[in-house]
Amino acid sequence: MPDRAAILAEAARLRGQFEAAGALPVETAVLQPAGTLLDLYGEDIRARAYITSDALRGEQMLRPDFTVPVVQMHMAHGAEPARYTYAGEVFRRQEDDADRANEYIQVGFEIFARDDAARSDAEVFSTFHALLAPLGLQPATGDIGILMAAVDGLETSERRKAALRRHIWRPRRFRALIERFSGRAPVPASRAELLAAKDPMAAAGPMIGLRGPEEVAARIAALREDAAMPPLSENDVALIEALLAVRGASEDALEQLRDIAVDLPAIAPAVTRFAARLEAIGAQGIDAAALPFEASYGRTQMEYYDGFVFGFTAPGRPDLPPVATGGRYDALTRQLGAGREIPAVGGVIRPGLTLELGAAT
């Protein structure tokens, strides 16, 4: 791994390239309020972040990512079109892989624009594509928005749809919910006993933890309501499975998705956006039809992506994380905008990896 001075110099070079593309350089604090990220992603973020406590400011988190603080900064000053670049350390715990760095430098490029989302997606992707071209990396693309639209189109309760949307970024949990909602997975014996009890709270014993009796009773009522719902149809489950299985060259993937949209019309607008994006990427001089596409791609990245997602990896180096990743995060600007919103897309590069791979070429 290159030394820190060389990585910082490479970060400055990359940031300079984004400045040349019209981006304004910005800085964000290394210590971020933990409450914002916990509100966005729930307690799961604790497993991936370093959290400390401040007597005056409460829980603080070492910056796990730049996008959230950059969006907060932008939305605090209005929601007008802008583009930004930044460089600095991010911190992420690596409990499952001791060889992965838990602190590294990240360089990013973000575009906030109200007109022509396909063009903005294409500009961000093509900018990264050109910067990384000398390294011979393998691109990957996907679209979280298509899966979100598919969930919205299911014939089931809003409560079930909300649960599926919440776990789109947790593929195993998402699969388990599909199995449960379709009736393929048996109801656990403990839950069946709880739901069958005339008064589940009667034998509950003393209350332990933060939840009060009202919250527990509300949860039991929600479980009973869900148990009374008819299962997801085999057709809906088959369509979700067909969607998640889509992968290959983008041109072929587009045709597969159009076929699925005949039976799942809820995804049709998202598929149309996918087609427009391919056309815009092609206009940048990239062979968009041949770009690899996977409907499930991006589901283990940060949870704010809700549309186009992309990444670049080093062939033959499965030991390395992606050199660059990015995507669209329109919903995040709504969540942090205090009543304002603006479409946004961006990405990040790890300069330590570009140096390491560049030295090997």
UniProtKB/TrEMBL annotation:
Pfam families: tRNA-synt_His (PF13393). Signal peptide: none annotated. It comes from the Bacteria. PROSITE patterns: AA_TRNA_LIGASE_II. One of its GO terms (molecular function) is histidine-tRNA ligase activity. InterPro entries: aa-tRNA-synth_II (IPR006195), aa-tRNA-synth_II/BPL/LPL (IPR045864), HisRS-like_core (IPR041715), HisRS/HisZ (IPR004516). GO terms for biological process: histidyl-tRNA aminoacylation. Residues 14-351 form the Aminoacyl-transfer RNA synthetases class-II family profile domain. L-histidine binds at D65, F66, T67, R92, Q106, E110, R299, Y304, Y305. GO terms for cellular component: cytoplasm. Keywords: Glycosyltransferase, Transferase. The keyword Phosphoprotein does not apply. PANTHER family: HISTIDINE--TRNA LIGASE, MITOCHONDRIAL-RELATED, HISTIDYL-TRNA SYNTHETASE. Homodimer. This is Histidine--tRNA ligase. It comes from Roseovarius nubinhibens (strain ATCC BAA-591 / DSM 15170 / ISM).
